[in-house]
Amino acid sequence: MEQGNLLVLSSVLARGLFSSIRTRLIIYFSLLFAVVLVLVGLINIFGIPFSAYSGRQGQQREEAFHSLELIADLKEEQLERWITERRDDAHMISDNDIIRNKVAQLLEKVTEYSTSHSLNETLLLLQQEQVYREILDLLNSVRFSHEVYDTIYLTDVRTGTVWISTDDTLLGRDIHQQTSFTQVLEDEHIYVSDIQIGPRSERPHLYLNHIIIDADGEPIAVMVMQISTGDIFRPLLHTGIGLGEKGEALLVNQDREILNPLKHPLADGSLARPLDYQINAQPAARAAGGAEGFIETEDYRGEPVLAAYRNVEVSSEGGWGMVVKLDRAELFAPLRQDILYTLVIGMVGLLAVVGFTVIIAGSLTKPLLDLSQTAQQVAEGNLEARAPVASSDEVGRLAAIFNAMVQRIQNWYVELEAQVQTRTAELAQVNEELKLEIMERQRMEKALQQSRLRYQMLFERMLDGYALHEIICDKNGRPIDYKFLDINPAFEKLTGLNRDIVGKTVLEILPGTEQYWIDTYGQVALTGQPLNFENYSDAVGGGWYEVIVFRPAAGQFATIFRDVTERKQAEKERERLNRDLLDKNKELEQIVYVTSHDLRSPLVNIQGFSREMEHAFKDVLAALQRPNVPAELRRDLAPILEDDIPESLQYIFSSTAKMDSLLSGLLRLSRLGRTALNIEKLDANKVISNISDVFEFRLQTIDAELEIGDLPPCWGDETQISQVFANLVDNALKYLSPDRSGIIRISGRNEGKEVIYCVEDNGIGIAPEHQQKIYEIFHRLNPDQNQGEGLGLTIVHRILDRHRGKIWVESEPGHGSKFFVLLPASRPKKKEETSSDE
After folding, report:
1. Which residue of 113, 203, 274, 788 pairs with 122 in a disulfide if CB–CB is 3.0 to 4.6 A?
2. Reduced to 3 states, what is the DSSP secondary structure of residue 657?
3. Interacting residues of 29 by C-beta distance below 8 A, sequence separation 6+
4. Distances in Å between the alpha carbon of 641 and those of 38, 142, 626, 637, 740?
5. Residue 309 pairs with which residues in a beta bridge?
6. E strand or H helix at 751
7. What is the end-to-end Cα distance of the chain in Å, rounded?
8. What is the pTM of this model?
């Protein structure tokens, strides 16, 4: 019984809830808006099933995979090019005839001394030989000029003993049992080892072995080049801005052991070291097995990632696996934020729709409610009740008719005479009402005519194109065409179409019109949902147009558009110029790097052959001192041998040294843009203290003082910031005045979000006309009095640009100089940390 009462109560409440027109309007409009909002949001995010539109999530995934593959291909190419350069270096040294002859001479000395001396005695005797020093000078020259080789040493193929090395601790070591030594003898050419931990350090190394053959083509020695891979892989594998904050690039060997430090801790929080951790994630496993491709999976932390993997060929036995990955959560973080904002905006819109519907429903249903209440009073016998007439629409006319009907019913109860009088009065009243109605109609027609005139003036004078259309649908209600109802003069001017198109359909005028546009405009005409978009059109005018589409009446839609072709072209030109500028900067930096790198090889040969000429010249001088040489010949050759040739050789040595210095400076300058920054908080007092230790001997030599104040901390790359202050102190020492004791002061102060340091000296000062030129490359104030390449301040300026800092100078000739350095006092946004190239 109680359950039945509850059912009856719920039924009554349901009927009461939906029996009101106002309530039904609010509910229906709110549900319609919510359904459309949710549907549009889902399509925008997840796309349309069984169609080419995959939504924002799918597009972001495809773009991420494409970007990962491009980055992986670039890094693979860089690694392969680096390996090829190392092979070329080994070929250039080992296949050089001078090296072959000198190594053969050295091994003859080894055979001569080892037969009657111990190993240590043999090594001491060899170090006194001229050919030993010449080979060692050449190996050191190669090592210092290329800056990638830790150690270079030579062994003979018979015993595997190290007879000559740039690292004295390796002399006398026996390596004939090492895999790299036996493997290169089997290959009889060149062997590149896999990366392994060095025997005397915990750093990973790569060994490049090359056989040296004698004049008969027989192998006599093996050259071993030890390369530290840590400093090489760090810039090559730097992720850059394309992979976000958590993106990572890593290398593994064939056993899936990592070759470079991982960017993130492992799942248990520990840090993995190179060659000390075997990675089991799918991308690394596939890359180590020789496969290439891309995949969406979990990485070594268990985090979902998108990854591209490649296999880099190192030698005929195998290569390295490379993985470039991006965290899925970081990729879709902006999309999740957009969804939240869309939900908030949707809820605000829903509340607005509900409020608007309440107002509209109230205005529509109030006259009906008043009429219903009046009818209820009449039904109860109150013939004096009248319904209020609040408008002249259908509801107002219904109220008037109802009032007249009640009035007639009331009049049936009076006498016949009263009925006649009443009827006469009613006719007079009706006539008066008709007159008033006619006057009201005339007034409305006049207002309507004035409104039409104003509309016509706006229609004809507006600069934007306007067209009114009627949608044409098939029997299933699907839009198949639309008709032109009206156009304005601006429409004719923008499209080249005249008013003859009015009354015709678009497929009659433009048969090539795509069904997509008919469907799009049909949605506006059928649903009333307006559109605003930009589109390129060849059919009308041939340009870009900004279009607004709305529904003025059921089954119709209107378009307002303007020509934005010039703006679009300007935007494209600006984007093209920006891309060209970036490409030119990268190309210029690459040209400087490659040119300075490639010029080193011929320079080494010039230096080597010049030394050979010097030794040969000394042999000629010694030969001329023999008793059997005629005195007349000695007299004729003396000016050439004692003056001309030594002077020429001296010019060659000084010129090659100067060129080597310039190339070293260019390489340092080009590497600034290629080296990744490690931005951290720096203790400026510690940095300057380390620099003062370096210059201590030089300060004592020239009797100068370095005063250091209490310096505030800053943010930057410790190595490069140290180079900034070292170059400034070095410049101050170069240009101290000889007339007084030199004093250099370093101070600093906080300026809110920035720190300003000052390096002040009492030197010769800088003239105003030179103060803007001192940062130019190769510019020197007194090139005849001071050594250097003129790159110090250029490098300082470049480093500070990358740190978003500044440098400026205040100076007067004869009164010293003040160099001010501005650096961030708090951690900057990670722009430079994520890019190795600006």
Report:
1. 113
2. helix
3. 353, 354, 357
4. 96, 31, 15, 6, 46
5. 293, 323
6. strand 742-751
7. 82
8. 0.42
